[in-house]
Amino acid sequence: MVEEHTVEASLPPETSNTQPPLTGSAKLRRLLAEPDKIVVCPGVYDGFTARLALRAGFECLYMTGAGTTMSRLGMADLGLATLNDMRDNAGMIASLDRSIPVIADADTGYGGPLQVGRTVSQYISAGIAALHLEDQVLNKRCGHLSNKQLVPEEIYLARIRAAVNARRQSPGDIVIIARTDALASLGFQTATARLKKAIAIGADVAFLEGLTSQTDAVNACKELAPTPVLLNMAHGGVTPTFSVDEAKQMGFRIVIFPSLALNQVYKSVSTAFDLLRREGVVSYDREGGGDPSLRDLFGVCGLEDAMRFDRDAGGDMYSDGV
């Protein structure tokens, strides 16, 4: 006799009375709904820097486009990264911990409305919580370099509209961040006017790139309220250095530090390489516990979780340790 099983009996017990975890976009929206909250996002560009940021306990990560271009292509941020480069990197980072939202650079959307729509759909499928779209020409450059070229306002708004429409047609969700680089060439009023029109179309967050004064920073938050405004703290860029507390006091709701990991790697790894080349030795910073072991490095990247998963499934690959 064939034994009959009900649908309920075939389900794992823990799925019957539990709520599904929040998606990254839902978690980010919840964070932005807290009126006195500022979301602090360290810039990460690969799995290892993302793992370090997760271990530090951040509530949200930012995948830097410049860092992605440099780490994946070995090239400067001059519009060379493609949709596939950016989506694959951001999706990998988002997959490391689905409970932590990832905000990712999406440059110009990589084409016209059809291409922008595909970008948004692909980012949603990859589990990315938020993306930002800008108003530079397709052959763009880093927002803190000079002589940026902009598209006409109607083309920029078509990008935002395409993003909103693609999100509406998708079974998932994503937070759309409208970015403008118009401040340097067109001035504050024109730049904020572009953002207001993008918000009216359906953008969730405003991003005024290249702020050069605290006055403009404060005024931007006031002009664009109640829409959350993002502050880009690109070290070595044109924006003055503000602390998280200062950013919060000015009215910002999100602050990203895109070059944080890049700068630290540049300094420390350059020093280590120079020492090895000149003197033939390797020296580690012994402050805080001595040299890292391979197990320390693997541990950051989920060694214990992987061993536990194997054991819980009945595997014995790591029963004697590693």
UniProtKB/TrEMBL annotation:
Residues 13-22 have a biased composition (Polar residues). CDD domains: ICL_PEPM. GO terms for molecular function: methylisocitrate lyase activity. SUPFAM superfamilies: Phosphoenolpyruvate/pyruvate domain (SSF51621). It holds the Pfam family PEP_mutase. Residues 1-23 are annotated as: Disordered. It catalyses: (2S,3R)-3-hydroxybutane-1,2,3-tricarboxylate = pyruvate + succinate. This is Uncharacterized protein. It comes from Heterodermia speciosa.
